[in-house]
Automatic annotation (TrEMBL):
Keywords: Lyase, Metal-binding. This is HpcH/HpaI aldolase/citrate lyase domain-containing protein. GO terms for molecular function: aldehyde-lyase activity; metal ion binding. Belongs to the HpcH/HpaI aldolase family. It comes from the Eukaryota.
Length: 276
């Protein structure tokens, strides 16, 4: 089962992984993101327009493209953990973790007995890997990723304890919320030195605990910088802002009166009425 998770295999082999963030519901959106060259796609049920049904549509669509679906749940309630994993996610991303105690409670919700308290019964989760229910039950505890977001002042202060919790696979940095929580918000795209120091502190804690470290980026250029710094999981972009920017760019070209070819853009075939 572990070998069927693209992101798990890459992390196990020490390779960096790049992901995309899905906020817009729809299986076609999921397929579009998965085919863009991602190792994983995170279905955002916290800030995205993704309800339970949309999550259940997105996960199998991502899997079908050979990419690992992760689900960011809205909070750390155990029923949210269960719903995300039961729909076939290869891992969960949990926001606003504040302590090692919360991290341990999360692991309990994400693992089957005897390690944890997760209930068993979904037919969708084994189908996500193409294996039997018995195989899923026996292998899920060590094959699925449990990822916590470090984005609060409390979590930063206890990051070594959180990183040391058995069953936590990765710490994922949310720079915007982290900056807000420690009093150094990102304004106008400027990252203050204090926030950079906090990010470095989290990265160092994950390395001491021999865990993986991820971070949210807003563009390919920013993602490339984080990759150069050694992050293991990098979210390159999210669908809604990229779609908005792309449409604004194309409208700007159209209204400028300047003919400009866009590489790879669909071209009308010759002979189309009104096209010369």
């Amino acid at each position: 089962m572990e070998n069927l998770s693209r992101v798990k295999v890459a992390l196990r082999e020490g390779r960096q992984t790049f992901g995309l963030w899905q906020m817009i519901p729809g299986a076609n959106v999921s397929r579009c993101l998965a085919r863009a060259g991602a190792d994983w796609v995170c279905v955002d049920c916290e800030h995205g327009n993704m309800d339970d049904a949309a999550m259940h549509d997105a996960v199998p669509a991502i899997v079908a493209a050979g990419v690992s679906p992760l689900v960011r749940i809205a909070g750390m309630e155990s029923w949210m953990v269960k719903r995300a994993l039961d729909c076939g996610a290869h891992g969960i991303v949990v926001p606003l973790i504040r302590s090692a105690e919360e991290a341990r409670a999360l692991v309990q919700a994400a693992k089957f007995p005897p390690w944890g308290r997760r209930g068993f019964g979904s037919p969708y989760s084994p189908a996500s890997f193409g294996i039997s229910s018995t195989e899923y039950l026996q292998q899920a505890n060590h094959s699925l990723l449990t990822i916590v977001q470090i984005e609060t002042k409390e979590a930063l202060e206890t990051v070594d304890e959180i990183a040391a919790v058995e069953g936590i696979d990765a710490l994922f940095i949310g720079p915007v919320d982290l900056g807000n929580n420690i009093g150094f918000p990102i304004l106008g795209g400027v990252v203050m030195p204090e926030l950079k120091d906090a990010i470095a502190r989290i990265f160092a804690a994950t390395r001491r605990a021999r865990k993986k470290c991820g971070i949210f980026a807003v563009s390919g250029e920013q993602a490339k910088i984080f990759a150069g710094q050694g992050f293991d999981m990098i979210s390159v972009a999210a669908d809604f802002p990229v779609l908005e920017m792309a449409m604004q760019s194309q409208m700007g070209v159209a209204r400028s009166g300047v003919s400009r070819e866009t590489p790879g853009l669909y071209r009308f075939p010759s002979g189309t009425p009104g096209m010369r």
